[in-house]
Amino acid sequence: MFFLVLVSLASVLAQSAAQSSGPPTPTILSPPGQPSSTGTIGGFEIVGNSLVSAQQMFLGTLDKVFILDKAENNVPQIDGHPAWASEYALSANTARTMNAITNTFCAGGTVLGNGTWINIGGNSAVTFGGNKVDDDSGNGPYDDPDGGKSIRTLVPCDDGSCDWVDVQPMTSPTVVPNSVSGVPVPDLLPLSLTIIIRETLQDGTAIIIGGCNNGGYVNDIGQDNPTYEFYPSTGGPITSPFLSDNLPINLYPLTFLLPSGRLLMQANRATIMLDPKTHKEYQLDDMPDAVRAYPASAGNLMLPLTPANNWTATILFCGGSDNDDWSQDWDIASFPASTSCVRITPDKNQSYTKDDPMLEGRGMTNLVSLPDGRVLCVNGAKTGTAGYGNMSWSIGESYADNPVLTPAIYDPAKPAGSRWSRDGLNASTIPRMYHSSAILLPDGAVLIAGSNPNSDVNVGPKINQRGLLSALGYGGPAFDVQLDADDLGGDAHNAANATVVIIRTGFSTHGMNMGQRFLQLDSTYTAYEANNTATLHVSQVPPNPAILAPGPALLFVVVNGVPSVGVQVMIGSGTIGKQATSAIGELPASSFVSATSTGGGEAQDQGGNNGASPRMAIGHTTRTTWTWTRTYTWRTDAFRFRIIITSHRLFSDFSTARTFHGTYAPSTSINHPHALLLRIVT
Ligand SMILES: [Cu+2]
């Protein structure tokens, strides 16, 4: 039966591919193996230098992270000028410069349904000190044309050959380089955006929202751009009353695609749902306790979409600033950040509910979905906000102070009152405040980088060393995943604690991971007591592309909270456009085959390398399935998450202005079983 299911799956997938909007025929993925990094468990590890400061960052392939800075006087050069983009190789901990061409200062980004990443907007041409130059074409010394109207595209690669392509919005129609489908881009509209946000929509296109003409700490009516439009373009910008009503805090509105197909949008104290087709805006309740959007910059995240909650979206907001005076004539840097956390489930209820407050006030934090469903809260500051400038009260140039060095964990599965902890988490030695970023990696580590509350870099020694099937469709037949005795810790009963999750790690910037999403696939199991193996029967993605927009994502199998190494899978057709959906295939009921029954051992026959080599095998050379065989250290070390730190530009001015630098010693290393462990190797 197992084999027959697979045959029918392959044929269904092939048929769908022929319709151009169904999933492509999946190929079999290479085994991801064990995490290649080793080290002391218990904290942070400084792994390398990102060359440019990671104001914006995303995982483009399993091995390559792409980083964007703003145009500034970085030491690494490209094409005769300082670089403000780089690629970081996770396997080698090396980086290469890339050429982003125009000024990427405070741009936004996301991944499209065909796997192409876009980076949109930016700031004017600048020279030393971040000062604007009159000539929009830039020229020396930075050679950084105005990026305000830029659309940059990148098709991530692993061979060092890819680079950003600036699609000039004001020229004749251009074709986006696209390794998948060659989507032609219609006439591009003149965008006048400095700060934008995006979310990938259910057809794999992107929405580009808001912004301003010149930048600044907050927006103002003289430069506001209260519109949104789509990429690829579907016509002229559409004016949003929500954006124009919420000056000055309408930059980087916190935006999430909901399973209903509407968008939750939050800025200043207001909340709406936007129907991107009819352009109608629906008012929801005001945001309690704090301003959450930039520059208050609260942590924000869609909680896991799971079979248990019927893939219903709940958005979590934590921290920010309970301030309404956005003038800069008072000491913003000392104003305490909020501890408040609230949730909203906008497709069901227009009101917020209070959630457990954070362990300390925090602004500019990143909330990162982990494969076990918990959320890592990292980076940020206890006082002040995002932004920088030369004020009498600013810390160096920073508008924030008192960095929070210790991460925390939020567990949505725990009862109210007990969701926050930091059991087993050590402190970092490196502040991560404005323009820092954090993303989940395939091996369960979290990459943390950036932090640069300065207008420019002074050249000199100031850069501190700081630190299964390949495709899934929307509905269709279930598929099987094999777990061997090692995966199950020698006990087939653990099959009941196995989940299969898809995480889109997102585009990280300004305390947001744009497009980040956690979706648990429905699954059941057949467990075999005779040899302690099991088969997981796993559904495809629910037949609603608004639950998880098309495009690449990571897939993890998690047993008792221990994740596999993630593999990259394409969700949907691999092209931009309407996605095919079909009814979800039925799953067999979970069952436990006792040792005295016949039929045990089937799973092990499907297994990968059951020998001495501790590797997980995903995929099988003779069949279209995923087999997972893995010896894990999890029986002794429950979790092996790492936080990796890449280069961090910091506070060169800052440390002289305020000597908090040396006062943050790393806390003692711990090795606590059944806790989330971070490694420190410094
Ligand atoms: Cu910024």
Task: Characterize the structure shown.
With 682 residues, the chain is mostly beta strands. It has a domain at 2-34 and 468-637: Immunoglobulin-like (Sandwich), CATH 2.60.40. It contains five helices and 53 strands. The protein has a six-stranded antiparallel beta sheet with strand order 7-6-3-2-41-42, with no helix packed on it. It is globular, with a radius of gyration of 24 Å. Mean pLDDT is 77; it is low at 1-20, 170-196, 458-467, 598-642 and 645-682. Residues 106, 435, 510 line the site of copper (II) ion.
Rg calc: 24 Å
State the secondary-structure class.
Answer: mainly beta
CATH superfamily of the domain at 2-34 and 468-637: Immunoglobulins
State the helicity in percent bands.
under 10%
Low-pLDDT runs: 1-20, 170-196, 458-467, 598-642, 645-682
Number of strands: 53
CATH topology of the domain at 2-34 and 468-637: Immunoglobulin-like
N- and C-termini, Cα separation = 52 Å
Shape: globular
Beta-strand content estimate: 25-35%
The main pleated sheet reads as:
6 strands, antiparallel
| Proper CATH architecture of the domain at 2-34 and 468-637 | Sandwich
Provide the spatial order of strands within the biggest beta sheet. Answer: 7-6-3-2-41-42
The top-level CATH class of the domain at 2-34 and 468-637 is: Mainly Beta
InterPro entries: Gal_Oxase/kelch_b-propeller, Gal_Oxidase_central_sf, Glyoxal_oxidase_N, GO-like_E_set, Ig-like_fold, Ig_E-set
Domain Glyoxal oxidase N-terminal: 200-456
Region (Disordered): 595-617
Signal peptide: 1-18
